[in-house]
Protein backbone atom coordinates (compact mmCIF):
# COMPACT_ATOMS: atom_id res chain seq x y z
CA UNK A 1 0.00 0.00 0.00
CA UNK A 2 2.73 2.48 1.03
CA UNK A 3 4.67 1.73 -2.16
CA UNK A 4 1.55 2.55 -4.21
CA UNK A 5 1.19 5.79 -2.27
CA UNK A 6 4.80 6.80 -2.97
CA UNK A 7 4.32 6.08 -6.69
CA UNK A 8 1.03 8.02 -6.71
CA UNK A 9 2.72 10.96 -4.97
CA UNK A 10 5.53 11.19 -7.52
CA UNK A 11 3.09 10.69 -10.37
CA UNK A 12 0.98 13.55 -8.98
CA UNK A 13 4.03 15.79 -8.64
CA UNK A 14 5.09 14.96 -12.19
CA UNK A 15 1.57 15.74 -13.42
CA UNK A 16 1.65 19.19 -11.84
CA UNK A 17 4.66 20.19 -13.92
CA UNK A 18 2.24 20.34 -16.86
CA UNK A 19 -0.40 22.39 -15.08
CA UNK A 20 -0.94 26.13 -14.84
CA UNK A 21 -1.77 27.69 -11.45
CA UNK A 22 -5.50 27.47 -12.11
CA UNK A 23 -5.06 23.89 -13.34
CA UNK A 24 -3.29 23.06 -10.05
CA UNK A 25 -6.10 24.64 -8.04
CA UNK A 26 -8.71 22.71 -10.00
CA UNK A 27 -6.83 19.42 -9.50
CA UNK A 28 -6.58 20.11 -5.75
CA UNK A 29 -10.28 20.89 -5.53
CA UNK A 30 -11.26 17.78 -7.48
CA UNK A 31 -9.11 15.61 -5.19
CA UNK A 32 -10.45 17.17 -1.97
CA UNK A 33 -14.08 17.23 -3.06
CA UNK A 34 -14.11 13.69 -4.41
CA UNK A 35 -11.88 11.28 -2.47
CA UNK A 36 -11.27 13.66 0.44
CA UNK A 37 -14.93 14.27 1.24
CA UNK A 38 -15.87 10.71 0.32
CA UNK A 39 -13.71 9.28 3.10
CA UNK A 40 -15.93 11.04 5.64
CA UNK A 41 -19.24 10.27 3.93
CA UNK A 42 -19.92 6.95 5.58
CA UNK A 43 -19.50 8.03 9.18
CA UNK A 44 -23.12 7.30 10.19
CA UNK A 45 -22.89 3.73 8.89
CA UNK A 46 -19.56 3.28 10.68
CA UNK A 47 -21.19 4.42 13.93
CA UNK A 48 -24.09 2.00 13.41
CA UNK A 49 -21.59 -0.83 12.89
CA UNK A 50 -19.72 -0.30 16.14
CA UNK A 51 -19.72 -3.12 18.68
CA UNK A 52 -22.37 -2.94 21.42
CA UNK A 53 -20.05 -1.58 24.11
CA UNK A 54 -18.86 1.36 22.01
CA UNK A 55 -22.21 2.19 20.39
CA UNK A 56 -24.57 4.76 21.80
CA UNK A 57 -28.13 3.42 21.90
CA UNK A 58 -29.34 5.61 19.05
CA UNK A 59 -31.16 5.14 15.76
CA UNK A 60 -29.71 6.20 12.42
CA UNK A 61 -31.85 9.37 12.47
CA UNK A 62 -30.68 10.29 15.97
CA UNK A 63 -27.05 9.75 14.99
CA UNK A 64 -27.56 11.92 11.93
CA UNK A 65 -29.12 14.72 13.99
CA UNK A 66 -26.28 14.56 16.52
CA UNK A 67 -23.76 14.62 13.66
CA UNK A 68 -25.37 17.67 12.07
CA UNK A 69 -25.54 19.36 15.50
CA UNK A 70 -21.78 18.87 16.01
CA UNK A 71 -21.06 20.25 12.51
CA UNK A 72 -23.25 23.31 13.22
CA UNK A 73 -21.68 23.79 16.64
CA UNK A 74 -18.23 23.72 15.02
CA UNK A 75 -19.36 26.28 12.43
CA UNK A 76 -20.82 28.55 15.16
CA UNK A 77 -17.59 28.29 17.20
CA UNK A 78 -15.63 29.22 14.08
CA UNK A 79 -17.79 32.29 13.72
CA UNK A 80 -17.67 33.34 17.38
CA UNK A 81 -14.11 32.40 18.45
CA UNK A 82 -12.28 31.85 15.15
CA UNK A 83 -8.68 31.76 16.41
CA UNK A 84 -9.34 29.33 19.27
CA UNK A 85 -11.47 27.11 17.00
CA UNK A 86 -8.78 27.14 14.30
CA UNK A 87 -6.11 26.07 16.81
CA UNK A 88 -8.42 23.33 18.08
CA UNK A 89 -9.11 22.27 14.47
CA UNK A 90 -5.41 22.03 13.64
CA UNK A 91 -4.81 20.12 16.91
CA UNK A 92 -7.47 17.46 16.39
CA UNK A 93 -6.65 17.19 12.67
CA UNK A 94 -3.03 16.60 13.63
CA UNK A 95 -4.08 13.80 15.98
CA UNK A 96 -6.39 12.39 13.30
CA UNK A 97 -3.64 12.32 10.63
CA UNK A 98 -1.14 10.87 13.10
CA UNK A 99 -3.60 8.24 14.30
CA UNK A 100 -4.18 7.11 10.71
CA UNK A 101 -0.46 6.98 10.00
CA UNK A 102 0.64 5.15 13.15
CA UNK A 103 -2.22 2.74 13.75
CA UNK A 104 -0.83 -0.77 13.44
CA UNK A 105 2.74 0.46 14.00
CA UNK A 106 2.41 1.74 17.55
CA UNK A 107 0.41 0.31 20.46
CA UNK A 108 -2.90 2.14 20.72
CA UNK A 109 -5.00 3.43 23.57
CA UNK A 110 -2.17 4.84 25.56
CA UNK A 111 -1.28 8.42 26.38
CA UNK A 112 1.96 7.90 24.49
CA UNK A 113 0.04 7.03 21.32
CA UNK A 114 -2.16 10.13 21.63
CA UNK A 115 0.80 12.44 22.23
CA UNK A 116 2.95 10.85 19.52
CA UNK A 117 0.15 10.88 16.91
CA UNK A 118 -0.59 14.54 17.68
CA UNK A 119 3.05 15.63 17.50
CA UNK A 120 3.50 13.68 14.25
CA UNK A 121 0.42 15.36 12.74
CA UNK A 122 1.57 18.77 13.99
CA UNK A 123 4.93 18.19 12.32
CA UNK A 124 3.13 17.46 9.02
CA UNK A 125 1.18 20.71 9.38
CA UNK A 126 4.34 22.55 10.36
CA UNK A 127 5.96 21.32 7.11
CA UNK A 128 2.94 22.45 5.06
CA UNK A 129 2.96 25.85 6.79
CA UNK A 130 6.74 26.33 6.62
CA UNK A 131 6.91 25.88 2.86
CA UNK A 132 3.83 28.01 2.13
CA UNK A 133 4.18 30.89 4.58
CA UNK A 134 2.61 33.80 2.64
CA UNK A 135 -0.42 31.73 1.64
CA UNK A 136 -0.92 30.37 5.17
CA UNK A 137 -0.65 33.88 6.68
CA UNK A 138 -3.31 35.03 4.22
CA UNK A 139 -5.75 32.14 4.82
CA UNK A 140 -5.36 32.39 8.60
CA UNK A 141 -5.96 36.14 8.39
CA UNK A 142 -9.08 35.66 6.23
CA UNK A 143 -10.38 33.01 8.62
CA UNK A 144 -9.65 34.69 11.94
CA UNK A 145 -8.50 38.28 11.41
CA UNK A 146 -5.23 37.28 13.11
CA UNK A 147 -1.94 38.20 11.42
CA UNK A 148 0.34 35.21 11.96
CA UNK A 149 3.92 36.51 12.35
CA UNK A 150 6.41 34.88 9.96
CA UNK A 151 8.67 34.32 12.99
CA UNK A 152 6.19 31.60 13.99
CA UNK A 153 6.96 29.12 11.22
CA UNK A 154 10.56 27.96 11.76
CA UNK A 155 10.24 27.50 15.58
CA UNK A 156 6.92 25.65 15.09
CA UNK A 157 8.66 23.30 12.65
CA UNK A 158 11.77 22.70 14.74
CA UNK A 159 10.00 22.35 18.09
CA UNK A 160 7.74 19.67 16.61
CA UNK A 161 10.67 17.95 14.91
CA UNK A 162 12.59 17.98 18.20
CA UNK A 163 9.63 16.56 20.11
CA UNK A 164 9.13 13.89 17.46
CA UNK A 165 12.76 12.80 17.66
CA UNK A 166 12.77 12.78 21.48
CA UNK A 167 9.50 10.80 21.65
CA UNK A 168 10.75 8.32 19.02
CA UNK A 169 13.92 7.71 21.03
CA UNK A 170 12.13 7.51 24.39
CA UNK A 171 9.40 5.16 23.15
CA UNK A 172 11.64 3.18 20.81
CA UNK A 173 10.50 -0.28 22.03
CA UNK A 174 6.82 0.54 21.50
CA UNK A 175 7.18 0.82 17.70
CA UNK A 176 6.97 -1.89 15.09
CA UNK A 177 7.58 0.48 12.16
CA UNK A 178 10.87 1.16 10.38
CA UNK A 179 12.26 4.58 11.31
CA UNK A 180 14.43 4.89 8.19
CA UNK A 181 11.34 4.42 6.05
CA UNK A 182 9.38 6.85 8.22
CA UNK A 183 12.10 9.48 7.80
CA UNK A 184 11.98 8.87 4.05
CA UNK A 185 8.17 9.47 4.02
CA UNK A 186 8.71 12.74 5.88
CA UNK A 187 11.29 13.77 3.28
CA UNK A 188 8.80 12.97 0.52
CA UNK A 189 6.15 15.08 2.29
CA UNK A 190 8.61 17.96 2.64
CA UNK A 191 9.33 17.66 -1.07
CA UNK A 192 5.61 17.79 -1.96
CA UNK A 193 4.95 20.80 0.23
CA UNK A 194 7.99 22.68 -1.06
CA UNK A 195 7.16 22.05 -4.73
CA UNK A 196 3.37 22.28 -4.86
CA UNK A 197 1.38 25.37 -3.87
CA UNK A 198 -0.47 25.27 -0.51
CA UNK A 199 -3.82 23.89 -1.60
CA UNK A 200 -2.32 21.26 -3.91
CA UNK A 201 0.34 20.11 -1.44
CA UNK A 202 -2.33 19.80 1.22
CA UNK A 203 -4.61 17.95 -1.23
CA UNK A 204 -1.87 15.45 -2.16
CA UNK A 205 -1.19 14.63 1.47
CA UNK A 206 -4.84 14.66 2.52
CA UNK A 207 -6.00 12.44 -0.34
CA UNK A 208 -3.08 10.08 -1.04
CA UNK A 209 -1.70 9.71 2.50
CA UNK A 210 -4.82 10.09 4.57
CA UNK A 211 -8.10 9.56 2.71
CA UNK A 212 -7.11 6.56 0.55
CA UNK A 213 -5.72 4.47 3.45
CA UNK A 214 -8.64 5.55 5.62
CA UNK A 215 -11.10 4.44 2.91
CA UNK A 216 -9.28 1.11 2.78
CA UNK A 217 -9.56 0.67 6.57
CA UNK A 218 -13.21 1.72 6.64
CA UNK A 219 -14.22 -0.65 3.83
CA UNK A 220 -12.41 -3.50 5.60
CA UNK A 221 -14.17 -2.58 8.86
CA UNK A 222 -17.60 -2.46 7.22
CA UNK A 223 -17.46 -5.35 4.76
CA UNK A 224 -14.51 -7.50 5.84
CA UNK A 225 -12.43 -7.03 2.68
CA UNK A 226 -11.67 -4.57 -0.11
CA UNK A 227 -13.08 -5.84 -3.40
CA UNK A 228 -14.98 -4.28 -6.27
CA UNK A 229 -18.20 -5.46 -4.58
CA UNK A 230 -17.43 -3.88 -1.21
CA UNK A 231 -16.19 -0.70 -2.89
CA UNK A 232 -19.48 -0.48 -4.80
CA UNK A 233 -21.47 -0.92 -1.58
CA UNK A 234 -19.39 1.79 0.12
CA UNK A 235 -19.93 4.19 -2.79
CA UNK A 236 -23.68 3.55 -2.92
CA UNK A 237 -24.02 4.04 0.84
CA UNK A 238 -22.03 7.26 0.87
CA UNK A 239 -23.54 8.84 -2.24
CA UNK A 240 -26.30 10.71 -0.40
CA UNK A 241 -23.98 12.16 2.30
CA UNK A 242 -21.31 13.02 -0.23
CA UNK A 243 -23.79 14.92 -2.43
CA UNK A 244 -25.27 16.61 0.65
CA UNK A 245 -21.78 17.81 1.71
CA UNK A 246 -21.02 19.17 -1.77
CA UNK A 247 -24.42 20.84 -1.93
CA UNK A 248 -23.80 22.40 1.51
CA UNK A 249 -20.46 23.80 0.35
CA UNK A 250 -22.03 25.22 -2.81
CA UNK A 251 -24.80 26.90 -0.81
CA UNK A 252 -22.30 28.51 1.60
CA UNK A 253 -20.17 29.70 -1.30
CA UNK A 254 -23.24 31.12 -3.03
CA UNK A 255 -24.24 33.01 0.13
CA UNK A 256 -20.87 34.66 0.55
CA UNK A 257 -21.21 35.95 -2.99
CA UNK A 258 -18.95 33.49 -4.83
CA UNK A 259 -15.89 35.65 -4.17
CA UNK A 260 -12.69 34.02 -5.41
CA UNK A 261 -10.52 35.34 -2.57
CA UNK A 262 -12.80 33.74 0.01
CA UNK A 263 -12.79 30.33 -1.57
CA UNK A 264 -9.85 28.90 0.42
CA UNK A 265 -11.09 30.20 3.80
CA UNK A 266 -14.58 28.87 3.06
CA UNK A 267 -13.19 25.51 1.96
CA UNK A 268 -11.01 25.17 5.09
CA UNK A 269 -13.76 26.24 7.49
CA UNK A 270 -16.13 23.81 5.78
CA UNK A 271 -13.53 21.05 6.12
CA UNK A 272 -13.12 21.99 9.77
CA UNK A 273 -16.84 21.76 10.52
CA UNK A 274 -17.19 18.32 8.95
CA UNK A 275 -13.92 17.16 10.51
CA UNK A 276 -15.05 17.56 14.14
CA UNK A 277 -17.54 14.66 14.23
CA UNK A 278 -15.49 12.61 11.74
CA UNK A 279 -12.45 12.51 14.04
CA UNK A 280 -14.67 11.18 16.83
CA UNK A 281 -16.15 8.46 14.58
CA UNK A 282 -12.76 7.23 13.37
CA UNK A 283 -11.43 7.27 16.93
CA UNK A 284 -14.31 4.92 17.87
CA UNK A 285 -13.71 2.46 15.04
CA UNK A 286 -9.97 2.47 15.75
CA UNK A 287 -10.77 1.48 19.34
CA UNK A 288 -12.61 -1.55 18.03
C1 LIG B 1 -3.61 23.37 5.57
C2 LIG B 1 -4.05 24.67 6.13
C3 LIG B 1 -4.81 24.79 7.26
C4 LIG B 1 -5.31 23.60 8.01
C5 LIG B 1 -6.07 22.64 7.49
C6 LIG B 1 -6.50 21.47 8.23
C7 LIG B 1 -6.24 21.41 9.68
C8 LIG B 1 -7.15 20.49 7.58
C9 LIG B 1 -7.64 19.26 8.16
C10 LIG B 1 -8.44 18.42 7.48
C11 LIG B 1 -8.96 17.18 7.99
C12 LIG B 1 -8.48 16.61 9.24
C13 LIG B 1 -9.91 16.55 7.28
C14 LIG B 1 -10.61 15.33 7.67
O1 LIG B 1 -10.30 14.21 7.57
C15 LIG B 1 -5.19 26.14 7.83
C16 LIG B 1 -4.82 26.21 9.29
C17 LIG B 1 -6.68 26.35 7.68
C18 LIG B 1 -4.44 27.30 7.17
C19 LIG B 1 -4.17 27.14 5.76
C20 LIG B 1 -3.56 25.87 5.39
Automatic annotation (TrEMBL):
Q: What chemistry does it catalyse, as a reaction equation? A: all-trans-beta-carotene + O2 = 2 all-trans-retinal
A Pfam family assignment: BCD
Q: Which UniProt keywords apply?
A: Cell membrane, Dioxygenase, Iron, Membrane, Metal-binding, Oxidoreductase, Transmembrane, Transmembrane helix
> Record keywords: Zinc-finger included?
no
Where is this protein localized, as stated in its record?
Cell membrane
Its cofactor is: Fe(2+)
Q: What is its EC number?
A: 1.13.11.63
* Bilayer-crossing regions: 64-90, 110-131, 152-172, 184-208, 239-256, 262-282
User: Cytoplasm: is it a keyword of this entry?
Assistant: no
Provide the top EC class: oxidoreductase
Q: Which InterPro entries match?
A: Blh_diox (IPR022270)
Topology term for the membrane: Multi-pass membrane protein
Name the protein family.
Answer: Belongs to the Brp/Blh beta-carotene diooxygenase family.
**According to its UniProt entry, what is the function of this protein?**
Catalyzes the cleavage of beta-carotene at its central double bond (15,15') to yield two molecules of all-trans-retinal.
Would you tell me the protein name for this molecule? Probable beta-carotene 15,15'-dioxygenase
- Which species does the entry assign this protein to? Leeuwenhoekiella parthenopeia
Amino acid sequence: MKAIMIVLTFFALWLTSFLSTSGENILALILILTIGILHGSNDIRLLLNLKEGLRLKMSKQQYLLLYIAVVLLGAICFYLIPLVTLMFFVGISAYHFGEQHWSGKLKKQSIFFTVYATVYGLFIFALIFYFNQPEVVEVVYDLTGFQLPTAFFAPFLFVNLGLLVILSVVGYQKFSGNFVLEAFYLLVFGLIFSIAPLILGFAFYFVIWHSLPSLYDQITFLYGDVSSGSLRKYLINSLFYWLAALFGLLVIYYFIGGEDSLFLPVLFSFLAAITFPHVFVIEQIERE
